[in-house]
Each structure stands twice: as C-alpha cells, then as structure tokens.
Amino acid sequence: MLPAIAILLTCLLCALLYVSLFRRTRRPDEPPLDRGFIPWLGHALEFGKDAAKFLSQMKEKHGDIFTVQVAGRFITVLLDPNSYDAVVWESQSRLDFGKYAKVLMERMFDVNLPNYDMTAEKAVLKIHLQNTNLPSLTKSMFYNLNNILGDKMSSAAEWKAEGLFDFTYNVMLRAGYLTLFGSESDQSNSHRNTADIQHSEEVYKEFRKLDCLLMKAARNMLSAEQKKDSSSAKSRLWKLLDSEKLKRKATKSGWIESYQRHLEDAQVTPDMQSKAMVLQLWATQGNAGPAAFWMLLFLLKHPKAMTSVQEELEKVFKSNGRTIKRMEDVSQEILDSTIVFDSVLNESLRLTAAPFITREVLLDMSLKLADGREYRLRNGDRLCLFPYVSPQMDPEIHQQPQKFQYDRFLNVDGSGKKDFYKNGKKVKHPSMPWGAGSNVCTGRFHAVNSIKLFVFLLFFYFEFEFNNPKDNMPQFDRSRYGFGVLHPDSDIVFRYRKRF
Length: 500
Ligand code: HEM
What we know:
Blueprint: H1 2-22, E1 33-34, H2 44-49, H3 51-62, E2 65-70, E3 73-78, H4 85-88, E4 95-96, H5 98-109, H6 118-126, H7 134-153, E5 160-163, H8 164-181, H9 194-218, H10 224-240, H11 243-247, H12 254-265, H13 270-285, H14 288-301, H15 303-319, H16 332-335, H17 339-352, E6 357-361, E7 365-368, E8 374-377, E9 382-385, H18 388-392, E10 421-422, E11 425-426, H19 444-461, E12 462-466, E13 493-498
Parallel strand pairs: 1-2, 3-9
Antiparallel strand pairs: 2-3, 4-6, 5-13, 6-9, 7-8, 10-11, 12-13
Helix pairs in contact: 6-12, 7-8, 7-19, 8-9, 8-14, 9-10, 10-13, 14-15, 14-17, 14-19, 15-17
The structure holds protoporphyrin IX containing FE (HEM).
Protoporphyrin IX containing FE (HEM) binds next to helix 13, helix 14 and helix 19.
C-alpha cells in the first residue's frame, strides 16, 4: 500500500513541477490569458456546459479579447464586432477555416477526404445556391413544400396536435432535402408524389436520431451505447443517400450534380461519397428548420407581431394582383417585399443563431483591432468569434437584448433598419447569423426564401394555435452553442387544422 501511495505522490509532484515550469504564461503583447484551475483541462467543463454563459463571464472579467485554455488547447476569443472583419477576411494561409472543419467532419460524419481542396469545393458549389440559380431552387422548394404540407393536410380535417419543433424541422428538412438532393417527381404536375413523401420521411427520422448525438460526437463524448446508435443512424443514412441512387433521381439541383462531379474528379470512393452526402445534408438542412421553428414560436407568443406579418402579407399579395388564398407560386418580387417579416426573422435569428466562427492560427501573427489595439497570436492556437454574445446579446447595441421585439429591425418610417450603434459608433455587424467574410453562408438567400415560403404556405393551408397558450417558452439546449441555430430543450405542442 505504502509504495503505491509514494508512487502516486511522486507522479503528482512531477506533474505539478512540469506544469509550474512549462505552463504557458502571458507575454506583454498578448491578450489576457485565463488557464482555469484544472491543469490541462482548463475551462473545458464550463465551456462545454454553457458556452454563452462562460464567455459572457470571461468578457466581464477580461474585456472583449482573451485567451482561455480548453482541454489542452489555447483559444483566443474575440468579442468586438467592429474587429470581426480583421478575422473573417484574413487569408487562409494565416487564419485557416478548413483544418478544424476537417477534424469535425471526421468526428461527426466519418468523412475523411485526404488531399481534398475545400476552397475549390466552395468555389464550385457557391454559384449553385445564389443569383441566377436561385429561381429554380425557389420553384422546386415551393413544389416540395406543397407536396409535404399537402400530405399533412390530408390528415388534418380536425384539429391535430404535434410538437411545433418536430413539425417544422420535419417539413423544412424534407422539402429542403428533396430540393437539393433530388426528387422522384418531374415537378410538372400537381399530383402528390408518395415516393418522395415516404423516402423523405425516412431520411428525416434517421437524420434526427443522428442530429441528437452530433454535439457529443463533436466533443468526443459519446458513450458506447450512443456510438452504436450514431453508427446505425449513419449507416442507414448512407444507404438512403447512396451516391448511385442520387444520380438516378428524376429532378436534381445543379448543386448536387456539381458536387458529385467534384467528388468524382477528386477520386473519392463511392462509399466516402455517400458519407459526404450525409455531412452535406446536415450542413445545408440543419439550420433552416430550427430557424423557422423559432420564428413561428415568437409569432405565436406575440399576437401583435403575428397580426403585423399577416397584414403585410395580405397587402403584398394584393399589390401584386394576387391573393394569399390562391397561391400557385411566389415570385422573388413578393419574397423581397416583406419588410415586417424580415424584421421578425432577423430578430428571431438574433436571439437563436449561435455559431462559433473558428479559425486555426497557422503562424505567429498580430491582430489589429478596430480601436487600434494590437495583439500577438501564437501559431497553433485557435481563434474564435462568438457573435451571439456580441453583437447579438450586447445590451449596448440592442436594448433589452433578451427580449423579442418584432420591430427591432424596422425604422420608424417602416423601412428595414440596418444601422445600430455602440457608444455612439456605428456597429459593422449588428447581428451575424450567417457568419461573414469569405466563409459567409452561401445558402442564405435560399434559406430565407425557404423559410418565407414555408410560413406563407402554413398560413395558406392551416389554422394553427398553441394547444395550451399558457405553456412557457422552452429553454435552449445549451450543448448546441457554437453549432448554428439553437434547438429548444423540449418541444412545445401546437395544433393545426386545414382551412379548406
Ligand atoms: C437559417 C438558416 C441558416 C443559417 C443560420 C446558416 C448559417 C451559416 C453560417 C454561420 C455559416 C458560416 C460558418 C463559418 O464561417 O464558420 C454557414 C456556412 C454555410 N452555409 Fe449556411 N446557414 C443556413 C442555411 C443554409 C442553407 C439552407 C444552405 C444550403 C442550401 C447553407 C449552406 C451553407 C454553406 C455551403 C456554407 C459554407 C460556406 C463557405 O464556407 O464558403 N446554409 N451557414
């Protein structure tokens, strides 16, 4: 017994000696350093448990730039929105986007693409989600939403209760998936396509099983049982999204055709191609459903916002010589003329979009902030922006930032509000749900159009309300800070029935 205690004590002493001799200390031109109390682990537990709370506390303590130790890594966190441009426009050879993304791709989706050029992939895919390619995506999304909502309508002659999050995520993911990855129908007729309805439901079911485990997978914290569940959901998704099957779809987006060609040119094996498809399913469909959910939830909880949005829609449709009661398609002109809707969506995203913008520091370099301060960053560290804490929740930029104000993004004359100030100075990025700079979300125009079409069609097809109007707003699932639009920690029941 005694020798064992002696060995343990010696090891402990050696570890303490090692930590005190070699532990990192702050150099004068570096951001404040906070290693936490636990050697090596540092702040990993607080960071993983509730990143928003932890980083807000660090901001109180150190200001808008600091370095924290997290599980052996040193992460410099920058929380000054006026200085974000210095990071998001910096060259890939200094602040790299791909390195950390590749680690996560492997941990979460088993995707490993050695010698794969992500910059080339982005350049190839970008054009397919924007500009001249947008109208065909919008048309296809409209068709697929109609198909899926039409199917929901067939069983909603009487009031039907469902979880609002599950309903919204289900419809948005399935329609978004069919639009990008392809569908069995040629979309030229209005008949319900049962093959697409069934297949997309299967995709959604498996996707949700995986989605619930992804945060733990990203942190390497899956239990043996969860690893098994995650593997089986992934295997089923790989089959459902088999790259050969996708090639045989009747209607495909330019995006998927181009992505498949790109993977083939890079000689990626068919198995790895299917894995990459599942990764893309998450990257393209993981945010729009939750964003639509929060928007609907805020509308249902705030009757004035709901009435303003509905009145605006009636007005916009009327001035385009149409009525919301007869909706065959929706033009980009209509989609672009809903200023109140835009404000509600921006406000919902301000409150719920919480991605980390992460870069690997590839060489010792200096970072100049907007107010002239300059800090050295060390090669091998990670740099992280968290726009959720600032600007989005910054009380000096947005008064009562926790509160939903549907007209926060409206000027008094009714136009869209873009200018926000901090200490009398205009803020460059008052809200950053889509990221910014060279890695800004390329799907944002399609995402906004999709959310709008979904909400318009919901108004068109259904009456809907809370099952119990007294139900409280759900809290956030705090484990999802850093990974895009947040999820609720529990669902909230609503009921719907068809209008006609
Ligand atoms: C409300 C919905 C969405 C939100 C809030 C959102 C947010 C974001 C954010 C924050 C990034 C940047 C990540 C970073 O810099 O680290 C991003 C990137 C990206 N998003 Fe989205 N996104 C949404 C929907 C979509 C949709 C529907 C698509 C595709 C159809 C899409 C495609 C992409 C792509 C391809 C990138 C990578 C861009 C690049 O690195 O060049 N997103 N998104």
